[in-house]
Amino acid sequence: MNKYRSRRSGQAILTTYDRLLASWACEVKERDLEGEYGITHIIECGNEDAVPLVLFHGVGDDSALMWIYNAPELGRHFHLYAVDTLGGPGKSVPNGNYGRDFDDARWIDGILDGLGIGKAFFAGVSHGGYLVQMYTLNRPERVLRAISISGTVPVGGKNNSMKIMMKIFLPEALFPTEKNVQKLIRKLSGEHYAVFTENAEIMAHYRALLKGFNNMAMAYHKIVAFSAEDVERIREKVVYLVGTDDPFEKLGGRDVLIQNRMNAAFYDNAGHGLNHELAEEINRKIVSVFSI
């Protein structure tokens, strides 16, 4: 399945990806890991003598965008590995094994093995938050502790995720003019939306993503609901950070966290881009949670 709508749109995404990564306020190196399901692209930075922290972005974005405001500070405390999700719009390249039998846990196993990592901290945003919860549940021996940002614990059966996405992203995402991209970001964010709208490189990349990424390329990442026993098993290891103005959480995610007694912190006037909107505060929280 082609993850770009055309060769031209794919090139626009990769060009703006590189420009965005060049604007990170820290030194980075990029590396590719060959694995069972293809080539996984990773942005590596930070303190090479520190504990590894593996980072996962959400659907429809990539590592260059997701961690731009977090990597410089987090890299002072951890050895960072920001993963471009297979099937996502970043630089990872799926192979023929990326299909209905794709297994997220085995894919992440291959990443850790390829990097020579036995155990690590994990953090993810939105769908990346699901990935770190899933991996904590299935590979507890490899997860020191995990943070899910702008996400909830996946209980209560299968939700109509497509309907939720349409409600939030339409109509702006269908017609990604500069004006509509601004409107969509304001819809997704709290009062600190200017961290996106006043950064020209972010806006150029985000518009390229909306115009050129085929979201169906992420379809092989299956969301599996957790049982009550599953929730109990991850409760002590996973921390949730959520903005009160996040439109996804307003649809019930925050209530699920409270009802299941999860370890959650809520941030007023912040939206789905919580780690961008309140970067300094979220960086401090991540460091605090992962202090060992």
Structure description:
The protein has 292 residues and is of the alpha/beta class. It has one domain (7-289): 3-Layer(aba) Sandwich (Rossmann fold). 41% of the residues lie in helices and 18% in strands. The protein has 13 helices and 9 strands. The protein has helices at 7-22, 63-66, 71-74, 104-115, 127-138, 161-169, 178-188, 194-197, 200-212, 228-234, 247-259, 274-277, 279-289, and strands at residues 29-35, 38-46, 52-56, 79-83, 93-94, 120-125, 143-149, 238-243, 263-267. Strands 1, 2, 3, 4, 5, 6, 7, 8 and 9 form a 9-stranded mixed β-sheet that branches. It starts with 6 loop residues before the first helix and ends with a helix.
Care to give the gist of this entry?
The protein has 292 residues and is of the alpha/beta class.
